[in-house]
């Protein structure tokens, strides 16, 4: 506005000289929660075998050979055990890439670029989890829930334990894990549900740090000694698989190259190009003659 008191003209204000007032960037806030990987730590890891080179890992599976009776004055009979070879192909190369122009890096908070690279790592971890679950979703034993969509009854769980036991899966030796979607997890946690009375909640002691005792993210507690995890990777609703119990050897993964972040300056673009990538392979080992898990599907 005009200045009074004998002076002529007008003063620059925040309105007339707005272009000269700097706008500042605060630190970025993620529009997602970090999930990380749940499944990678629950299956066999062959990463050490492919660190140097190679695109395939041959995994021999030896069938069980029953013992024979030895009769007096008779020679033993030699058996040739059947061996099946499963190939784990290192065939997945995932990446995220962005170009940060100079004007953005100059005007924005420097920590903003670091937050984008952190997001890259999260995206790659989720991709690995999705590929592992895509394999486990093919477990040979698949049973529809008798109590409706995403509702795990005591009968459903007992049927799973019976199937695992009949297929010689040692579900009580600490090598089996159970992973379910959020809807089924909510049903398990429901105090009014029949299965909840057998569920040991990891946070029941009031010590939140105990949630890390499961050895990986998503650990919620235990059912009959089996570690139970929740994963958003598993879909909810529809005629889909909503959870599974599986032995550690039911699937394998091999990460040939962990998450790698590379950056270079582009003169043409007047900016910095940032790329994060990882190389790995995953494979289901479960088969009709060697069942290693059990999964539930909606009706």
Topology readout:
Layout: E1 44-45, E2 56-62, E3 83-89, E4 92-101, H1 102-107, H2 111-136, E5 142-144, H3 154-166, E6 176-180, H4 182-189, E7 199-201, E8 219-223, E9 226-230, E10 241-247, E11 251-266, E12 271-284, E13 293-297
Parallel strand pairs: 1-11, 5-13, 6-9
Antiparallel strand pairs: 2-3, 4-12, 6-10, 7-8, 8-9, 10-13, 11-12
Number of helices: 4
| Uncertain regions spanning at least 5 consecutive residues | none
The total beta strand count reads 13
Q: Describe the strand arrangement of the main beta sheet, using strand numbers.
A: 5-13-10-6-9-8-7
Largest sheet: 7 strands, mixed
Full CATH superfamily name: Major capsid protein gp5
User: Which structural class is indicated by helix and strand composition?
Assistant: alpha+beta
Write the H/E string, N to C: EEEEHHEHEHEEEEEEE
Secondary structure: helix percent: 10-25%
CATH architecture: 2-Layer Sandwich
Q: Gyration radius, to the nearest Å?
A: 28 Å
What is this entry, summarized?
This protein is an alpha+beta fold.
Q: Can you put this structure into words, describing what you see?
A:
The protein has 299 residues and is of the alpha+beta class. The protein has a single domain (40-297), classed as 2-Layer Sandwich (Major capsid protein gp5 fold), CATH 3.30.2400.10. Helix content is 18%, strand content 30%. It has four helices and 13 strands. The strands form three sheets. Strands 5-13-10-6-9-8-7 form a seven-stranded mixed beta sheet. Strands 1-11-12-4 form a four-stranded mixed beta sheet. It has a two-stranded antiparallel ribbon with strand order 2-3. The chain is flat and about 125 Å long. The chain starts with 43 loop residues before the first strand and ends with a strand. The mean pLDDT is 82.
């Amino acid at each position: 506005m005009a200045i009074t008191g004998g002076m002529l003209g007008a003063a620059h204000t925040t309105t007339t000289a707005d272009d000269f007032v700097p706008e500042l960037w605060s630190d970025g806030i993620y529009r997602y929660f970090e999930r990380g990987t749940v499944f990678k730590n629950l299956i066999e890891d062959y990463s050490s075998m492919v660190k140097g080179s190679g695109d395939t890992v041959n995994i021999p599976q030896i069938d069980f050979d029953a013992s024979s009776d030895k009769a007096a004055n008779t020679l033993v009979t030699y058996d040739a055990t059947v061996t099946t070879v499963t190939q784990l192909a290192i065939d997945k190369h995932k990446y995220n890439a962005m170009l940060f122009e100079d004007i953005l890096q100059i005007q924005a908070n420097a920590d903003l670029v670091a937050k984008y690279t952190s997001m890259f790592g999260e995206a790659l971890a989720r991709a690995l989890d999705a590929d592992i679950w895509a394999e486990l979703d093919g477990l040979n034993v698949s049973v529809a829930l008798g109590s409706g969509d995403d509702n795990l009854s005591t009968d459903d769980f007992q049927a799973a334990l019976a199937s695992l036991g009949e297929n010689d899966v040692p579900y009580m030796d600490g090598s089996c894990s159970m992973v379910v979607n959020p809807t089924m997890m909510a049903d398990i946690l429901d105090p009014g549900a029949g299965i909840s009375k057998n569920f040991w909640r990891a946070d029941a002691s009031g010590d939140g740090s105990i949630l890390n005792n499961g050895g990986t993210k998503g650990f919620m507690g235990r059912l009959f000694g089996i570690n139970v995890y929740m994963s958003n990777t598993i879909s909810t609703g529809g005629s889909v698989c909503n959870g599974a119990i599986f032995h550690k050897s039911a699937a394998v993964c091999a990460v040939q190259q962990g998450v790698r972040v590379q950056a270079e300056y582009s003169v043409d673009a007047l900016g910095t190009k940032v790329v994060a990538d990882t190389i790995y392979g995953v494979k289901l080992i479960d088969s009709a003659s060697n069942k290693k898990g059990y999964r539930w599907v909606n009706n």
